[in-house]
What does this fold into?
Amino acid sequence: MSEENSELKALIKLLDDSDPEVLDHIRKKLISLGAGAIPMLEEEWGKSFDPLIQQRIERIVHAIQFETLVTDFVAWKNSIYHDLLEGMMLVARINYPDLNEQKVLDQLNRLYEMAHTETGLVQAPLEKIQALNRVMFEFAGFRGNTSNFHSPQNSFINTVLESKKGNPLMLSVIYILVAQRCNMPVYGVNLPEHFICAYQERNAVYLAEYAYPDADILAYINPFSRGNVFGKDAIDEFLQKLNLKAQESFFTPCRNEDIIIRSLRNLENSFRKTGEFEKQSEIARLIHNMSLDT
It folds into this structure.
């Protein structure tokens, strides 16, 4: 056994100490060791028959995983490309630290293969939207989770791909990821209370008119309502019902950073509603870090 492992094992053995100050010191030391300490912590958890020790190990492992996640979120924020799928994988790791990313990729690839075939048979944008809608909502069976709208599971890409139920933002994210792989210019629109998509294309020749000419928006799409297609007037009416003054950002594509922050805010609200206040506090920290200027 290496000297480092011997030190780690000795620290873990001290987790049965009853002195709060000693325990706090050990906890901070173990957390500072990072992800490399997790395998031995999990091994000692399996050997222990003391529920208190197991609980302390679980909390330390969670703290290490969360600190790693915080670092990864900052790295994503400071990256050049802000890849949407990579960002949503990070969001999923909030609840699933051992996320099977390959399974997520495989599920998205299967959707893409179906969508590529269907959308390749047509040329006009509206026809492509209709073809993608058939894949997403008829063949694959995605739908809005209206019966449990505020469930945290609606915000994780892995669980939504599995259950085929999600909130407006996550259904839109999956729609966007598949559409863009099919070379369809579909982007997210950060509409208050209800995230939607926009098909944005300059100099399109297949449609008689644009939904919003000033922003080259051919059509708006609502994946939460099985891909319903609508125009700018519907957004104007929606904003009037909310007593909100129209802003350009309510009609035009947003950044991937905005999508991730909104996803985190959805989760923060979900955990507050379910009474998981420790989780809510962690999400608040991630939102704060994501909102800071670089």
User: Anything to note?
Assistant: The chain has two domains: 3-77, 84-291. Strands lie at 143-144, 165-166, 186-189, 196-200, 217-222, 228-230.
